[in-house]
């Protein structure tokens, strides 16, 4: 195994941990996050979040953001904060709309694409998972996707014949059409 292959394997393993995947998603959503904020939002201890934030920094995903007094936030590596720090709203909805539009465009133009690009790898399934299993599965899939993510910004890393491919992952609980009545056991 070459040094580069070993580095990719270690890097992919860094994202397989469900808490790290949750933290990366949170940083993408909020722009910056502290271990205390992460703990409050994700339901983990601040010490655990702090450890995993440092691990994400160690593997090059995060970096310290400018301190706010004694508060030590983290941000995605190489991302400068916006001039205003107003929370971004609707970004998830916009992203889903763009993903759906890209998929509709591909379906409409599929017959005109070169033969090797006319097939997709779409799949779906109903899985019965615990919340922890859902997060672990998401982390594993993100780890696989991340192995190819560096190619987006580094054309020299792309093999011959590579082209942009949309990868959409949506893991979510299937809820009934009508809300369940509230009980003491459920909020």
Task: Tell me about this structure.
This is Transcriptional regulator. It comes from Actinocatenispora comari. Helix 3 (35-42) packs across helix 4. It is globular and about 55 Å long. With 187 residues, it is mainly alpha-helical. It has helices at 3-16, 18-30, 35-42, 46-58, 91-109, 131-149, and strands at residues 32-33, 62-64, 74-76. The protein contains six helices and three strands. Mean pLDDT is 78; it is low at 81-91. A three-stranded antiparallel beta sheet has the order 1-3-2.
Features of this protein?
Arc Repressor Mutant, subunit A; globular; 187 residues; mainly alpha; 3 strands; 3-stranded antiparallel beta sheet; single chain; 6 helices
Give a brief rundown of this model:
It comes from Actinocatenispora comari. This protein is mainly alpha-helical and 187 residues long.
Give a short account of the largest sheet: 3 strands, antiparallel
CATH superfamily of the largest domain: Winged helix-like DNA-binding domain superfamily/Winged helix DNA-binding domain
Q: Radius of gyration from the CA trace?
A: 19 Å
SS strand fraction? under 5%
What best-fitting shape do the alpha-carbon axes yield?
Answer: globular
Kindly report the spatial arrangement of strands forming the biggest sheet.
Answer: 1-3-2
- Write down the overall mean pLDDT: 78
InterPro entries: ArsR-like_HTH (IPR011991), WH-like_DNA-bd_sf (IPR036388), WH_DNA-bd_sf (IPR036390)
Organism: Actinocatenispora comari
Protein name: Transcriptional regulator
């Amino acid at each position: 195994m070459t040094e580069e292959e070993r580095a990719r394997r270690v890097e992919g393993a860094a994202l397989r941990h469900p808490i790290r995947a949750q933290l990366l998603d949170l940083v993408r959503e909020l722009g910056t996050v502290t271990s205390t904020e992460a703990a409050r939002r994700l339901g983990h201890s601040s010490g655990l979040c702090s450890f995993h934030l440092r691990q994400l920094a160690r593997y090059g995903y995060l970096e310290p953001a400018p301190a706010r007094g004694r508060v030590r936030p983290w941000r995605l590596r190489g991302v400068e904060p916006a001039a205003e720090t107003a929370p971004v709203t609707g970004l998830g909805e916009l992203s889903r709309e763009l993903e759906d539009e890209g998929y509709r465009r591909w379906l409409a133009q599929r017959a005109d694409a070169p033969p090797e690009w006319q097939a997709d790898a779409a799949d779906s399934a109903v899985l019965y998972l615990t919340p922890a299993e859902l997060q672990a599965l998401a982390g594993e899939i993100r780890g696989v996707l991340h192995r190819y993510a560096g190619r987006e910004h580094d054309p020299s890393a792309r093999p011959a014949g590579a082209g942009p491919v949309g990868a959409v992952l949506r893991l979510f609980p299937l809820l009934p059409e009508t809300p369940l009545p509230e009980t003491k056991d459920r909020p």
